[in-house]
Design goal:
Elements lengths: L4 H15 L13 E6 L11 H19 L3 E3 L9 H10 L3 H19 L14 H16 L3 E11 L4 E3 L4 E2 L2 E2 L8 E10 L5 H6 L9 H11 L2 E10 L2 E7 L10 E5 L5 H4 L5 H13 L12 E9 L6 E7 L10 E4 L5 H9 L8 E2 L15 E2 L10 H14 L3 E6 L5 E2 L1 E2 L9 E4 L3 E4 L26 H4 E3 L6 E4 L3 E2 L1 H4 L3 H4 L12 H7 L4 E4 L7 H14 L12 E3 L3 E2 L16 H8 L1 H10 L7 E2 L4 H17 L8 H19 L3 H17 L4 H11 L4 H10 L21 H28 L5 E5 L9 H8 L3 E5 L21 E4 L1
Parallel strand pairs: 1-2, 1-24, 10-12, 24-25, 26-27, 28-29
Antiparallel strand pairs: 3-4, 3-7, 5-6, 7-17, 8-9, 8-11, 8-16, 10-13, 11-12, 14-15, 18-23, 19-20, 19-22, 21-22, 28-30
Helix pairs in contact: 1-23, 3-4, 17-18, 18-19, 20-21, 20-22, 21-22, 22-23
This protein binds one RNA strand through helix 7, strand 9, strand 13, helix 10 and strand 27.
Length: 819
RNA sequence: GCAGAGGUAGCAAAGCGGUCAAAUGCGAGGGACUCAAGAUCCCUUCCUUCAGUAGGUUCGGAGGUUCGAAUCCUCCCCUCUGCACCA
C-alpha cells in the first residue's frame, strides 16, 4: 500500500458525503435530537492549524457516535467573523475587512472539509453578514425596550493597541485579552452597557443545575459573579444616612471606624475643613499611582474629620478615607471591624484604632490578630450568646425595624460594556437627534448595514468620517440626526449563534421558536476553558433574556460542556507562527492521511488534557491503520468463536462507555486490542463489520473504505452503532487471553535458556489443564513463538512428555517441554 | 496570600483499595524474513535469578489506616492554573 493512498481514499469519501448530503438534518419529531456543537472560530488569515483540528475532531467523534446511535444529530459550523485582525489587515492594505474575512472563511471551509468533519454545512452562519447581525441589532432593541440597555459615562478599560474599550471580562490581570503585553488604561467615556447584572443571581444560581459542566468552569464563574449575601447598614454622618455593605452584620458591635473609598464621588461632603488639605493630598497621591502598582499598594487612609454614629449603640465612630475600599462595589464605604477582619486589623494597628472582639470561637482558641471564623457573640448587648448565623438574622431584623438597614445581596459582576470604537463589528442601532436625543432605530429599519465603499486610512474608526453612514434621519421627528458609530463587542455575535443554527436562513425572524426548542439546548458543547468568564457567561445571559422574551423555553444554552485540552507543538509550547512550531493538517494529511492524524490526536491522552504533538508518535497510529488495511486485503473468511465474540462484545460495551465519557484515548486502545485478537484468531466477516463500525467515529474516511471493501452498502457513518450483548461476554476468555500471552513469553524464556545451555530446540510441547484446552490454540502459539507448538491436555495419555513436565502445569500456567 | 488541578517506569500516558511490576503508544534492544537495507511480523525492555511460571525494590518525599495501598488519611516538597484587598 502506497502511503499516499489514504489521502486519496479520504478525498473520495469527502466527496461522497457531500454529494449525498450525508450529514444534513431536519427536525424530526419521531427521532430524538442531539445537538453537538464546537465553539465556532474566528476565521483568522493564517488559517486553521492542527490545534483547531483537535478541537473539531473531539466534537466530530461525539456527533458521529451519537448519529450512529440513532439520534437526529445537529452538528453545525459557522464563523465568528467580526473582529479586529481583519480590520487591522484592511488598514494596512488600504482595503476592506470584508475582503480579508471572506477570503479567510473560504480558506477555513476548505480546510475543514479536508478534515472530513461531519457538519451540516447548509446551516452555516457568518456573523459579519447583515442577515446575521441584523438580529444582533434586533436583540439590542429588545433589550433597550426592556430597560436592559443603557448609556453611561464611566471609567472604562481602554486598550491602546486595539484602540477601543474593553469589557471587564476582556481585561486579564490588567492586560488586554488580545495583547498580553499591553496594559489597559482607564478612560472616562460615554458607553453602551448591557445590564447583565439583572440576571446575575440567576446566572449564579443556575450553575447548580449544570451537573455536566466541569467544576472548574463553574467555580470560575461563581468567582467572577461573586455573589455575597449581607446587609446594607446606615450610619449617620452629619444627620445624613450613609450606607455601608457588610457580609458580617453580626460583628456590628465591633465597629471601631468606617472607611470610605478615596474615589467616592461624595467623599468631600463629609470631610471637615481642618482635614480637607490632608484628604485632598491623599487623593491626589493616589491618582499619581500607576494602574499596575495599585494592587501592590499598602493599605492607607486618612481621617476625614467626620464621625458617624453607630446605628445600634449611638457611639461616635471616626470615618477614614481609604485606598483599599472600592468605590463601585457595594456603597463605596465599609465598616471597620479590626477584631474580625484581617484588613481592618492591619488598618487599625497602623492608625492605632481600638480593636473590640465581639465573636468568640466555640472551641477555646488563642486569638491572634483578626478572628474571621464563626462563633458566639460577646460584647454585643442583647445579642450576646447567639451564634454567628442567627446573630446575622437577628441584627438585620432589628436594623430593619429601625429602618437603618436591610438584607442585601451584592455581586462582583459588572454590567457588560458593549461599545467598541471600531468599524468591523455590528453597528449599534441608535441615532442621536438634537431635538429628541438618543433614539433607537425602529425594527423595520434594520439592519443598519456597515458601508462597503468606505476607505480605511488610519487607525480610528472610519465611520466617524463617513457621511453616508453618519447622517441619518431621526425616526421620531424626521429631522437630521447622527448615527452611533460605535459597534458592538464581538462577544455579542457569539452569544446566540447556537440558536441561529437551528434556523439559519430565516429572514423574517431571528429564528423559529419551534425549531429552536426542538434542537436546543445544546447537548454537548466543546470548547476551550479560556472562555469561562467571557463567552460562557454571555451566552448564558442571552439565553435567559431570549427565554424571557418568550422565544425559547429553556434558560440554559448547554447541558454539557466539555473543555478540550490544548494541542502544543512538538517543543511543548503553544503553537504559534513566530515560534515556528505550527503543525498544519494539510502537511500531515499529505504524508499520512487525515484519519491517521485524527486518530492519533485522540490516542495521545484524554481529550481534556493538554497534549503535545509528536512526529514519531503518529507513526504508531499510521502503522496500526496500515495493518488494518493489509489485514482486510488478505482476509480469509473464517468462523467466529465464542472467544472472539466475547472479546467483541466486551469491547463494544467498554468503547461505548468510553466515548460517552470522552475517554477517546481508552476507546482507541480497546479498538487496537480487539484488532490484535483478530490477527491471532479466525473471525467471521460479521465480526469485522462490527470492528469497522467501532472504528468509524475515529477514522471516518478509512472506515467507509473498509466498509465498502468488505462488501457493505451505504455509509458506515450512518450505520447503526453496535450494541453489546452481555450474554456473549465471558470473563474466562479474557483470562484465557492473558494466560496465552503469559505462556508465549514463558515458552520463549525456556527456549532462550535451552538455547544457551543445550543448543537449539525446535519443537514445543504445552500441557494444559483439561478444561483449559479450548483456550490454547496451537496455531496461534506456533505463529507467535515462531516454532511448532503442540498443545496437550495433562490428562492425555498419548501426549509426548519425556521429562514429565505436564506435572508442573497449573491452571493458567501450563507445563512446557522443548526439544 | 487564597482556591483548584497535578507529580506513575527512558518519554508520553492509563490505573485510583486486592486480579498491579503497573494497560497502551513512542523510544530502545533481540529475533524472523531478506543477498542487503527498508517495510512487515514476533519477542524483550525496574533489578536479580533461571528448563521456566521465582524473589527483590518501585508509582514526588515522610509517616499512618488496613490482613492488604500507586490507589484512603496526615504532613512536607515541587509543577501548573485561576482570583488577587469585592468588606
Amino acid at each position: 500500500m502506497k502511503e499516499t493512498d489514504f489521502a486519496k481514499i479520504e478525498k473520495k469519501w469527502q466527496k461522497a458525503w457531500e454529494d449525498k448530503k450525508a450529514f444534513e438534518v431536519k427536525e424530526d419529531k419521531k427521532k430524538q435530537k442531539y445537538y453537538v456543537l464546537e465553539m465556532f472560530p474566528y476565521p483568522s488569515g493564517t488559517g486553521l492549524h492542527m490545534g483547531h483540528a483537535h478541537n473539531y475532531n473531539i466534537g466530530d467523534i461525539y456527533s458521529r457516535f451519537k448519529r450512529m446511535q440513532g439520534f437526529n444529530v445537529l452538528h453545525p459550523m459557522g464563523f465568528d467573523s467580526f473582529g479586529l485582525p481583519a480590520e487591522n489587515a484592511a488598514i494596512k492594505a488600504k482595503s476592506h475587512p470584508k475582503k480579508f474575512t471572506e477570503e479567510a472563511i473560504a480558506n477555513f471551509i476548505r480546510q475543514m472539509k479536508d478534515l472530513g468533519l461531519s457538519y451540516d454545512w447548509s446551516r452555516m452562519v457568518e456573523t459579519h453578514k447583515p442577515d446575521y447581525y441584523r438580529w444582533d441589532q434586533w436583540i439590542f432593541l429588545k433589550m433597550y425596550e426592556k430597560g436592559l440597555v443603557y448609556r453611561k459615562k464611566s471609567p472604562v478599560n481602554w486598550c491602546p493597541k486595539c484602540n477601543t474599550v474593553l469589557a471587564n471580562e476582556q481585561v486579564i490581570g490588567g492586560k488586554c485579552w488580545r495583547h498580553e503585553d499591553t496594559n489597559v488604561e482607564i478612560k472616562h467615556l460615554e458607553q453602551w452597557f448591557f445590564k447583565i447584572t439583572h440576571y446575575a443571581d440567576e446566572i449564579y444560581e443556575d450553575l447548580n443545575k449544570l451537573d455536566d459542566w466541569p467544576e472548574l468552569i463553574k467555580r470560575l464563574q461563581r468567582n467572577w459573579i461573586g455573589k455575597s449575601e449581607g446587609a446594607e447598614i446606615d450610619f449617620i454622618i452629619n444627620k445624613e444616612k450613609w450606607k455601608i455593605f457588610t457580609t458580617r452584620p453580626d460583628t456590628i458591635f465591633g465597629v471601631t471606624f468606617l472607611v470610605i473609598s478615596a474615589q467616592h464621588p461624595r467623599l468631600m461632603d463629609i470631610v471637615t475643613s481642618e482635614q480637607k488639605a490632608k484628604v485632598q493630598g491623599f487623593v491626589k497621591k493616589l491618582h499619581s499611582v500607576k494602574e499596575e502598582d495599585l494592587d501592590k499598594m499598602e493599605k492607607e487612609g486618612v481621617f476625614t474629620g467626620a464621625y458617624a454614629s453607630h446605628p445600634l449603640t449611638g457611639e461616635k465612630i471616626p470615618v477614614y478615607a481609604g485606598n483599599f475600599v472600592l468605590a463601585d462595589y457595594g456603597s463605596g464605604m465599609v465598616m471597620g471591624v479590626p477584631a474580625h477582619d484581617e484588613r481592618d486589623y492591619e488598618f487599625a494597628k497602623k492608625y492605632k484604632l481600638p480593636i473590640k472582639y465581639v465573636v468568640k470561637p466555640e472551641k477555646a482558641e488563642k486569638i491572634e490578630g483578626a478572628y474571621e471564623g464563626v462563633g458566639i457573640l460577646v460584647n454585643s448587648d442583647s445579642f450576646n450568646g447567639l451564634q454567628t448565623a442567627e446573630a446575622k438574622e437577628h441584627i438585620i431584623k432589628v436594623l430593619e425595624t429601625k429602618k437603618l438597614g436591610k438584607k442585601v445581596i451584592n455581586f462582583r459582576l459588572r454590567d457588560w460594556l458593549i461599545s467598541r470604537q471600531r468599524f468591523w463589528g455590528t453597528p449599534i442601532p441608535i441615532v442621536y437627534c438634537d431635538k429628541c436625543g438618543v433614539v433607537p432605530v425602529p425594527e423595520k429599519d434594520l439592519p443598519i448595514v456597515l458601508p462597503e465603499k468606505i476607505e480605511f486610512k488610519g487607525v480610528s474608526n472610519p465611520l466617524l468620517q463617513y457621511k453616508p453612514f453618519l447622517e441619518a434621519k431621526c425616526p421620531n421627528c424626521k429631522g437630521p440626526a447622527r448615527r452611533e458609530t460605535d459597534t458592538m463587542d464581538t462577544f455579542v455575535n457569539s452569544s446566540w449563534y447556537f440558536l441561529r443554527y437551528c434556523d439559519s436562513h430565516n429572514d423574517k425572524k431571528i429564528f423559529d421558536s419551534a425549531k429552536a426548542n426542538y434542537w436546543c439546548p445544546i447537548d454537548v458543547y466543546v470548547g476551550g476553558k479560556e472562555h469561562a468568564c467571557l463567552h460562557l457567561i454571555y451566552f448564558r445571559f442571552y439565553t435567559k433574556f431570549l427565554r424571557d422574551l418568550g422565544l425559547i423555553n429553556f434558560g440554559e444554552p448547554a447541558r454539557r460542556l466539555f473543555n478540550q485540552g490544548f494541542l502544543l507543538g512538538p517543543d511543548g509550547e503553544r503553537m504559534s507562527k513566530s515560534k515556528g512550531n505550527v503543525i498544519l493538517p494539510e502537511v500531515v494529511s499529505k504524508k499520512y492521511g487525515i484519519d491517521v492524524a485524527r486518530l492519533f490526536l485522540v490516542s495521545i491522552a484524554s481529550p481534556d488534557k493538554d497534549i503535545m504533538w509528536s512526529d514519531e508518535g503518529i507513526d504508531g497510529t499510521f502503522r496500526f491503520l496500515k495493518r488494518v488495511f493489509s489485514y482486510v486485503s488478505n482476509m480469509k473468511e473464517g468462523k467466529t468463536s465464542k472467544k472472539i465474540e466475547s472479546k467483541i462484545h466486551s469491547t463494544i460495551k467498554k468503547i461505548t462507555e468510553e466515548i460517552e465519557n470522552f475517554k477517546y484515548n481508552l476507546a482507541v486502545i480497546r479498538l487496537r486490542e480487539l484488532f490484535e485478537s483478530f490477527e491471532h484468531e479466525s473471525i467471521a466477516k460479521s465480526d469485522f463489520n462490527l470492528f469497522i463500525r467501532l472504528l468509524s467515529p475515529f477514522a471516518p474516511h478509512l472506515s467507509e473504505e473498509l466498509w465498502q471493501i468488505i462488501g457493505n452498502k451505504g455509509f458506515v457513518s450512518l450505520a447503526p452503532w453496535p450494541e453489546a450483548d452481555e450474554k456473549k461476554i465471558d470473563e474466562k476468555f479474557e483470562q484465557a487471553e492473558k494466560s496465552a500471552d503469559k505462556t508465549v513469553s514463558d515458552i520463549l524464556n525456556v527456549l532462550r535458556i535451552v538455547d544457551e545451555k543445550k543448543g537449539k530446540a525446535n519443537k514445543v510441547y504445552v500441557y494444559v489443564m483439561p478444561f483449559e484446552l479450548e483456550y490454547y490454540d496451537s496455531n496461534e502459539l506456533t505463529k507467535r513463538v515462531g516454532k511448532p507448538v503442540m498443545v496437550f491436555s495433562v490428562s492425555d495419555k498419548k501426549k509426548h512428555d519425556p521429562q514429565g513436565k505436564a506435572s508442573k502445569a497449573k491452571p493458567g500456567k501450563p507445563g512446557i517441554y522443548v526439544e
